[in-house]
Amino acid sequence: MLNSVYRLVSPKQIEKVVVDEQVTGDTVIVRPTNLSICHADQRYFNGLRDKEILNQKLPMALIHEGMGEVVKDYSGEFEVGERVIIVPNTPFEHDDIVQENYLSTSKFRSSGYDGLMQEYVFARKDRLVRVLPDVPSNVAAYTELISVAMHGIKRLERVENSDKKIFGVWGDGNLGYIVSILLKSLYPNSKLYVFGKEEGKLEMFSFVDETFTIDAIPEELKVSNALECAGGKGSQYALDQIIDHIKPQGSIALMGVSENPIEVRTRMILEKGLTLSGSSRSGVEDFKDTINFLSKYETARKRFENLVGIERKITTIMDIYTFFEEDLASSWGKSVMKWEI
Ligand SMILES: NC(=O)C1=CN([C@@H]2O[C@H](COP(=O)(O)OP(=O)(O)OC[C@H]3O[C@@H](n4cnc5c(N)ncnc54)[C@H](OP(=O)(O)O)[C@@H]3O)[C@@H](O)[C@H]2O)C=CC1
Ligand SMILES: O=C(CO)[C@H](O)[C@H](O)COP(=O)(O)O
Ligand SMILES: [Zn+2]
């Protein structure tokens, strides 16, 4: 069946290609409707990855955060018109130990495999999760990032000690905001401190116990466990501060992605007996946990609406270029496209 796919062929150049899609008894055809930009997409769009990586991964359609409506279901599980979130990770094997998003055989949309910038997405039925009626489409669009935060917290839980008095989140952007919302709901008896660069952004974190700009952290302040949500070179500075302000034998979730390798003070990690938990992407179970979370915590669900930043209707390739530029310039929130191309 013919489908139009909008692929990034080189930095800042997207071309429409028509591909012949294979259909099986497990295929569900989804019309993408609301797509959200991730930092990873911006890195590809602007050519901020190594040349070898770009050569290896392009051409490909960008975007791995999004939802759409079922237009045809060969599996018989979904109704036409149902709103569904598309899980970007696609495993081809099961492993009892390694989770689906860490299997080298899995494919991940918009990382060497076509993302959601397509006329129709031909998805496997197990890669779709229904959107709750109370969740607006512009929030459902970035469920993937919520599931990433959920996954990171769950991985941290595997290694944490029993001290959960104070969580520290470094990063006052999208991921930091989402992680903070999840922590505040999941750990109502713990204190939550958020560390960021700008007062203006930190004001959005009114629901946490305290916020600090990173140049004014009291020397004696200590956290039990920490989550690094800064990314880029900021990961290095954040990790450095975390090492200073975390209690001995605390645990750190590393979630921010840096384009280039960063320096880490391993000596102090050893001296304080710290545990680092790396976490990347998410799997379908994390999406299901996210949906359950959204259904259980109404206040948290509403808070996610405050994270919607710019929203635009996209009808041409030129609109995509403009939107990626606007997203780069935007100071707060997730940028969501109404995909009408
Ligand atoms: N592990 C995973 O699977 C995933 C990882 N990510 C990664 O997470 C990172 C964050 O993404 P996102 O939240 O969308 O990005 P944002 O740019 O919205 O947020 C990052 C925030 O951290 C702030 N920051 C920078 N340096 C520091 C520091 N030293 N201490 C505290 N805060 C700091 C930034 O401030 P300013 O803008 O002023 O510099 C910004 O507000 C990115 O690297 C992204 O690629 C995203 C999705 C999934
Ligand atoms: O954003 C992400 C998940 O939501 C990941 O950071 C992203 O998938 C990493 O992949 P890549 O190596 O292609 O940047
Ligand atoms: Zn992402």
From TrEMBL:
Which keywords does the record carry?
Cell wall biogenesis/degradation, Metal-binding, NADP, Oxidoreductase, Teichoic acid biosynthesis, Zinc
Q: Where does this protein hold Zn(2+)?
A: C38, H64, E65, E144
Associated pathway: Cell wall biogenesis; poly(ribitol phosphate) teichoic acid biosynthesis
The answer to keyword Glycosyltransferase applying to this record is: no
Reactions performed catalytically: D-ribitol 5-phosphate + NADP(+) = D-ribulose 5-phosphate + NADPH + H(+)
Domain annotation Alcohol dehydrogenase-like N-terminal: ranges:
26-131
Record-listed E.C. numbers:
1.1.1.405
GO MF terms held by the record? ribitol-5-phosphate 2-dehydrogenase [NAD(P)+] activity; zinc ion binding
Q: Which cofactor does it need?
A: Zn(2+)
Task: List GO BP terms, alphabetically.
Answer: cell wall organization; poly(ribitol phosphate) teichoic acid biosynthetic process
Q: Does the keyword Lipid biosynthesis apply?
A: no
Q: Kindly give the InterPro entries that the UniProt entry links to this protein.
A: ADH-like_N (IPR013154), GroES-like_sf (IPR011032), NAD(P)-bd_dom_sf (IPR036291), TarJ (IPR034710)
Q: What does this protein do?
A: Catalyzes the NADPH dependent reduction of D-ribulose 5-phosphate to D-ribitol 5-phosphate.
Provide the family line: Belongs to the zinc-containing alcohol dehydrogenase family.
The protein, known as: Ribulose-5-phosphate reductase
Q: Which organism is it from?
A: Pseudolactococcus hodotermopsidis
